[in-house]
Design brief:
The structure is a single chain. The chain is an alpha+beta fold. The protein has 3 domains: 32 residues, no CATH class; 132 residues, RlpA-like domain (Barwin-like endoglucanases, Beta Barrel), CATH 2.40.40.10; 71 residues, Alpha-Beta Plaits, CATH 3.30.70.1070. Helix content is 17%, strand content 26%. The chain is built from 5 helices and 15 strands. Strands 5-9-6-8-7-10 form a 6-stranded mixed barrel. A hairpin with a 2-residue loop joins strand 3 and strand 4.
Length: 311
C-alpha cells in the first residue's frame, strides 16, 4: 500500500496503464461532480418539418421566401444550452429569432414599427408556439430594436428571398430542383442584309452580345452570426387588429362575423383584379392586452387561423 496524492492505493495509478473504461468513468464522475455537461455538437441543416400541435393549435410549416407580415414580437426566455430547430447553437447574444412555420434557416428584416428601428435577423428556431406572437427574438435583437426585455413590440417581418435561398442552399437537407436541359436541335445560319434605314457600320459586322439568364449576381451565403447593423426607418406604429379569416364567399364571412359579433367583428372587402374576397376582423384595439383577449376568444370559438396584426 502506497500513498498517491494523499490517498491510499495498492500502487500509484500513474505507474500502470489505466483501462479506457476507467478513464471514461472518471470523466463522467467529474462532469457529474461539478455540474458540467458535454459540449453541444452543432449540426446546421435545412429543415421544414411536419405539421405539429401546441396545445389546441396546429401549425403547418411551409416554404415562404417572400413572407411579409406584421404582428407582435416577444423575447425568448431562458439561457439553457441547446440546439435550435435547424441544429444551430442557441445564443441570446446573436441576432436570431424563432418562427412557427417558415423554412429554417431564413434571413429577414425585422422592424420595430413603434420606433422605426430595423435589423437583419436569422430565423433558425420554432419557438414556444404562442399564437399571440408572430416571432420570438433573442435579447440582443430586442436590445438593438430598443424593445423592453420583458415586453412586446409591434413589428414587421420581411423575409429576404435571395439571402434566404443562399442560406438554405448552403446547408445539407435543402431541397434541390432537378433540371433537365432541353435537347438542342440544329441551328441554321443565314446572312441577311440589314433593313432599310439601318447603318451598316462602314461594312463592319456589329458585335453580338450573348444573352444571359439574369443580370443579378447570386447572394453570398449569410454567416451563422449576422453582423449588427441598425437602420432607422420612419416609425409606423399602426393599429392593433385581430384578423379572423378570409373567405371567397360573403355568406361564410357573415357566419363568422355573427360568431364574433359581441367582440365587434366586421367584414372588409378585399378587391384583387376581378376577384373580391371578404376578410373578417376585429379592431382597432387599444393595447396588447385587449388584442390578446380577443385572440383568445376567437381561438375558443373555433377560429384557428386568427392572429394579431398591425394594420
Amino acid at each position: 500500500m502506497v500513498l498517491c496524492h494523499g490517498r491510499a492505493w495498492a500502487g500509484c495509478p500513474r505507474d500502470r496503464p489505466r483501462p479506457g473504461w476507467a478513464i471514461g468513468g472518471m470523466i463522467a464522475l467529474v462532469l457529474l461532480t461539478f455540474g458540467c455537461t458535454p459540449p453541444l455538437k452543432p449540426d446546421p441543416h435545412y429543415v421544414l418539418g411536419k405539421p405539429y400541435q401546441v396545445g389546441n393549435i396546429w401549425y403547418y410549416p411551409k416554404e415562404a421566401f417572400d413572407l411579409d407580415e406584421t404582428g407582435l414580437a416577444a423575447v425568448i426566455r431562458g439561457d439553457s444550452a441547446r440546439l435550435t430547430a435547424d441544429g444551430e447553437v442557441f445564443d441570446q447574444t446573436a441576432l436570431a429569432a424563432a418562427h412557427p412555420t417558415i423554412q429554417l434557416p431564413a434571413i429577414a428584416h425585422l422592424t420595430n414599427l413603434e420606433n422605426g428601428r430595423e435589423v437583419t435577423i436569422r430565423l433558425n428556431d420554432r419557438g414556444s408556439g404562442d399564437p399571440h406572437r408572430l416571432v420570438e427574438i433573442t435579447r440582443r435583437t430586442a436590445l438593438l430594436l430598443a424593445m423592453p426585455a420583458d415586453g412586446v413590440a409591434r413589428v414587421r417581418l420581411q423575409v429576404l428571398p435571395n439571402e434566404s435561398h443562399a442560406a438554405a442552399d448552403a446547408l445539407p437537407g435543402a431541397p434541390s430542383l432537378a433540371l433537365t436541359a432541353a435537347p438542342r436541335g440544329g441551328v441554321e445560319v443565314a446572312e441577311l442584309p440589314p433593313p432599310p434605314g439601318v447603318r451598316q457600320g462602314n461594312g463592319r459586322a456589329l458585335p453580338v452580345v450573348p444573352a444571359t439568364g439574369s443580370s443579378e449576381a447570386p447572394a453570398a451565403v449569410p454567416p451563422l452570426r449576422l453582423p449588427e447593423a441598425i437602420t432607422q426607418m420612419m416609425p409606423q406604429p399602426g393599429r392593433l387588429m385581430v384578423q379572423l379569416d378570409t373567405f371567397e364567399e360573403y355568406e361564410y364571412a357573415a357566419v363568422q362575423r355573427a360568431r364574433m359579433g359581441a367582440a365587434g367583428a366586421r367584414i372588409v372587402s378585399i378587391v384583387g383584379g376581378r376577384r373580391t374576397r371578404f376578410r373578417v376582423e376585429v379592431g382597432p384595439l387599444p393595447d396588447v392586452a385587449h388584442a390578446d383577449a380577443i385572440l383568445d376568444q376567437a381561438l375558443a370559438s373555433g377560429i384557428p387561423d386568427a392572429r394579431i396584426v398591425v394594420d
